[in-house]
Amino acid sequence: GSWGCGYAISCTENRKEEKNEGRRITRLNEGEGTKLIAGYTKLAKMVPNCKDELGTKHGQIREQVTLKSKGGVLQKTVNFIQELQIAHSQVVERLQEQNQVLVENGKSSRKRLKSVSNKKNLLLRSQLQNHGIKPIDYVNQSMQQNRPDKIL
Fold first, then answer.
1. Is 7 left (phi over 0), alpha (psi -120 to 50) or beta?
2. HSE of 147 in the Cβ direction (CA atoms, 13 Å)?
3. Which pLDDT score, from 0 to 100, does residue 151 have?
4. Concatenated DSSP letters for 16-55?
5. What's the predicted TM-score (pTM) here?
6. Do 29 and 23 touch, CB atoms closer than 8 A?
7. Dmax of the chain from CA atoms?
8. Which of 30, 52, 129, 152 has the fewest CB atoms within 10 Å, measured from its CB?
9. Distance between CA atoms of 65 and 50, rounded to whole angstroms?
10. How far is CA 117 from the centre of its chain?
11. CA-to-CA distance for 15 and 21, rounded, in angstroms?
């Protein structure tokens, strides 16, 4: 009749299309919702102290997060990530400190080694001279050979 869209056939077709579109959107949303619930559930199982967000059903731990518990999962996940960031920063800081200690120890060890080597070299040179052997001064000899003003 005079109510509605004017053409009974096109009105019915429009309603069918709208319903089909609504059903399609619902199916898509349900698929996304399932993925979201699965993601929340994975987080709840990975994050310490978060399994209680799964709740219980008939005395057993649920396999999935409920709609009510999603906020708790997110909050505990954020807290856990913040704790990990702090722990990471502390580990990096300790490693840098330990690296600095190793560098300083390496420098002082090289100095001690050089000092000991020089003392041993002097001792060996004096022993050679005491036995009538003139030691060769390789350092000075090589410096003289490398002088640019020396004519061959």
1. beta
2. 10
3. 55
4. HHHHHHHHHHHHHHHHHHHHHHHHHHHHHHHSTT-GGGG-
5. 0.49
6. no
7. 135
8. 152
9. 10
10. 44
11. 10
Average pLDDT, the chain: 77
pLDDT exceeds cutoff 70 at 145: no
pLDDT at 1 over 50: no
How far apart CA 102 and CA 100 sit, in angstroms, is: 5
Separation between Cα atoms, residue 91 and residue 134, nearest integer Å:
57
Torsion of the alpha carbons at 67, 69, 71 and 75, rounded to the nearest 10: -150
Rounded to whole angstroms, how far apart are CA atoms 144 and 152?
Answer: 12
